[in-house]
Design goal:
14% of the residues lie in helices and 49% in strands. The chain is mainly beta and 185 residues long. The chain has one domain. The longest helix is centred in the first third of the chain and has 15 residues. The radius of gyration is 16 Å and the shape is globular. The protein starts with a helix and ends with a strand. This is DUF4879 domain-containing protein.
Length: 185
């Protein structure tokens, strides 16, 4: 764990001096303060395999290779944390992890839904927005907002469109959709 912290700190120091400008306006996510307790839950969630869900994959759109041979540049994984056991309030996060530094994620629409494909209940619909990381990084978790999910639900589905990440060396790259069920921690 200490080695991981040292590596992440090294990446932070290396990329903290770099900055990027966008041709379009980017809204700074001002409430991106992640509590230490949530950070620990996020790390544990990302380190635990989820057989029911597949994170969004980011590939190099400009590659001349076929899609089957494209290298994945990174992933975008959703993380859901319930405020307390008896609360309907669920915090929604997106985590970017990749081999290229990125500094923003955006989507056209993102719905947090009932875990069953037969039940199309939408708990929260997030409108189009760009979430700036504030610093270019190969790993970043950003707070998206909260959803009201019934306490008897332990998993949710994500329906997204237009999911993209701003990779500093390439610009905006599209991501596949987030697939499957995701546990609420």
């Amino acid at each position: 764990m200490r080695k991981l912290f040292v590596v992440l700190l090294g990446f932070f120091l290396v990329f903290s001096a770099s900055s990027t400008t966008f041709a379009e306006s980017v809204q700074q996510n001002t409430s991106n303060n992640i509590t230490p307790a949530h950070l620990e839950i996020i790390q544990n969630t990302l380190n635990t395999p989820n057989p029911d869900g597949t994170p969004a994959q980011i590939t190099n759109n400009e590659s001349q290779d076929s899609i089957s041979t494209q290298a994945t540049l990174g992933t975008i994984t959703p993380v859901f944390i319930r405020a307390s056991d008896n609360s309907t309030q669920v915090y929604v996060y997106l985590t970017y992890a990749g081999n290229k530094a990125a500094n923003a994620v955006k989507f056209s629409k993102m719905d947090i839904m009932h875990s069953s494909v037969l039940n199309r209940t939408v708990y929260k619909s997030f409108p189009a927005k760009t979430y700036n990381f504030g610093i270019a990084s190969t790993y970043h978790t950003t707070y998206i907002g909260t959803a009201n999910v019934p306490t008897n639900q332990t998993k949710v589905r994500v329906s997204d469109s237009g999911l993209m990440v701003y990779v500093t060396s390439s610009g905006w790259l599209s991501a596949t959709n987030i697939i499957g069920q995701w546990p609420i921690q």
